[in-house]
Amino acid sequence: MLPKFIYESEVLPELSRFVTADAIALHLKVKIEQIREIRFWRYVLLVVAEGLTTFVSYADIPPILEVAPPKGKDMVAWRKRWKQNGHKAPEFWVGFYALMFRRSRTIEEMYRWKGLVTAIKFGLSNTCLQRLASFYAAEKYAFAHF
Question: If 139 and its partner were Cys, which of 54, 81, 101, 145 is the partner (CB 3.0–4.6 Å)?
Answer without folding.
Answer: 101
